[in-house]
Design a protein that fits this description.
InterPro entries: AB_hydrolase_fold, Dienelactn_hydro, Dienelactone_hydrolase-like
CATH superfamily: Alpha/Beta hydrolase fold, catalytic domain
EC number: 3.1.-.-
Number of domains: 1
Protein name: Dienelactone hydrolase family protein
CATH architecture: 3-Layer(aba) Sandwich
Strand content: 15-25%
Helix content: 25-40%
Strand order of the largest sheet: 1-2-4-3-5-6-7-8
Keywords: Hydrolase
Shape: globular
GO molecular function, one term: hydrolase activity
Order of helices and strands: EEEHEHHHHEHEEHEH
Radius of gyration: 17 Å
Number of helices: 8
């Protein structure tokens, strides 16, 4: 069984709402920070965080759009019917890899205050835009992150100063990179550049390409692929059980 609570934590940029999932009896467990996709905090996101917690982890789900102010709720299927950039662009403009990394100390401090968290090392998992954010967070506090999983993460190697690949030399975490086939946000040339940076930095990682579309893990996305998603869950849980316990 799993307990769920909401809280407000103070970051350098303001007040951030978070959802915390723990064992209902308070049994200590390793912690994982869940970096959402651009579709925001919504029932599907909460359900995924809950499922991860039920597998034996404390899961912290921060609202990465907190700098924007009140918004939503958003329904991805409705969003994809309209002008996606017009709807999500203003929200996404308020966050990013560097800003998300800036929030890392506040998230870790919150976890450190919880008796339900076992150990000092934590994990991170990110989906879509959250994939790069999880990597940036781990590069910002390499002393605290043992493992990072990125599912259909995009723009992992770009010219931006906060490109995820630029954090490679600061990573101490092991990475699992789950890639979609024919993903315009992570084309083969970018994958090669990203993996080259990891190899040069001596980062331990594994990359796996899924026969699915970008966003396949999200159950409320039109491209959701149950077979590929269940494989992703098996890989993710095995990865975190090995690296965090």
């Amino acid at each position: 069984m799993m307990a769920h609570e909401q809280a407000i934590i103070t970051t350098r940029s303001g007040e951030m709402s978070v959802d915390l999932f723990t064992a209902d009896d308070g049994t200590p467990a390793p912690a994982i920070i869940f970096y959402m996709d651009a579709g925001s905090i919504r029932p599907a996101t909460l359900a995924m965080a809950a499922r991860l917690s039920e597998a034996g982890f404390v899961v912290l789900l921060p609202d990465l759009f907190y700098r924007y102010g009140p918004y939503g709720p958003l329904d991805p299927k409705e969003v994809f019917k309209g002008d996606v950039k017009a709807i999500l662009g203003p929200l996404m403009a308020t966050t990013g890899n560097a800003r998300s990394a800036e929030d890392t100390d506040a998230l870790l401090a919150f976890l450190d205050s919880r008796t339900e968290v076992a150990g000092v090392k934590v994990g991170a998992v990110g989906f879509c835009m959250g994939g790069g954010m999880a990597i940036a967070a781990a590069g910002t506090r390499p002393d605290r992150f043992a493992a990072v999983a990125s599912f259909h993460g995009g723009n992992l190697a770009t010219e931006a100063p906060d490109s995820p690949h630029s954090y490679a030399t600061r990573l101490d975490a092991e990475l699992y990179i789950a890639v979609a086939e024919n993903d315009g946000s992570y084309p083969p040339a970018m994958a090669e550049q990203f993996e080259h940076a990891l190899n040069e930095a001596g980062v331990s990682y594994r990359s796996e390409t899924y026969p699915a579309a970008h966003g396949w893990m999200k159950p409320d996305f039109p491209v959701y692929d149950e077979t590929a998603a269940e494989h992703g869950w098996r890989e993710m849980l095995a990865f975190f059980r090995r690296t965090l316990r």
